[in-house]
C-alpha cells in the first residue's frame, strides 16, 4: 500500500506552505477572510488536482494510442454547498481537444479510461459530488 505525505507549515495570518515530493505550494485566503490573496485556495486546488490527475492520464494514453492532437485543456468548475462545512456538491469537467484530424472515437475512449479506470482523484470526487463531463472538439 502506497502512502503519501505532505507537510504544511503556517506562515502567519492565513498563509500556509505545503511541501510534497514534487515541490512547494503556497496557500492563502482572500482579505475578506484575513488573508493577503497571496496563494492558491485549498478548495480550488482540489479542482486543479482533479484536472491534473485526469490530464496526466490523457497525456499518457494519447501517446500510447498514437492519437494526433495539437493540444488539449481541461476546465473544471465546482459548486459549493450553502451550509458549512462547504464542499463541492457538483463538479463540471470540460475536456477541450484541438487539432486538424481529431479522432473523436479514440479521444472518447481515452477520456473514459481516465474517468473509469485510472484517475483516483476522480474516484474520490465521485464519493461526495455529482460529476458532469463534456468533451469538446476544436478542429483547427
UniProtKB/TrEMBL annotation:
InterPro entries per the UniProt record, alphabetical: KH_dom-like_a/b, OsmC/Ohr_fam, OsmC/Ohrsf
Stored Gene3D superfamilies: 3.30.300.20
Domain of life: Bacteria
Pfam families linked: OsmC
Protein name: Putative redox protein
UniProt organism field: Flavobacterium endophyticum
Amino acid at each position: 500500500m502506497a502512502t503519501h505525505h505532505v507537510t504544511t507549515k503556517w506562515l502567519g495570518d492565513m498563509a500556509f506552505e505545503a511541501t510534497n515530493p514534487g515541490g512547494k505550494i503556497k496557500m492563502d485566503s482572500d482579505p475578506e477572510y484575513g488573508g493577503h490573496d497571496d496563494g492558491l485556495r485549498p478548495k480550488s486546488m482540489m479542482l486543479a488536482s482533479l484536472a491534473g490527475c485526469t490530464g496526466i492520464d490523457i497525456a499518457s494514453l494519447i501517446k500510447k494510442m498514437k492519437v494526433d492532437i495539437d493540444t488539449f485543456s481541461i476546465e473544471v468548475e465546482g459548486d459549493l454547498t450553502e451550509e458549512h462545512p462547504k464542499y463541492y456538491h457538483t463538479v463540471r469537467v470540460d475536456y477541450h481537444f484541438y487539432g486538424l484530424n481529431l479522432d473523436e472515437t479514440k479521444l472518447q475512449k481515452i477520456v473514459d479510461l481516465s474517468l473509469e479506470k485510472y484517475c483516483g482523484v476522480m474516484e474520490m470526487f465521485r464519493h461526495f459530488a455529482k460529476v458532469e463531463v463534456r468533451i469538446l472538439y476544436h478542429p483547427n
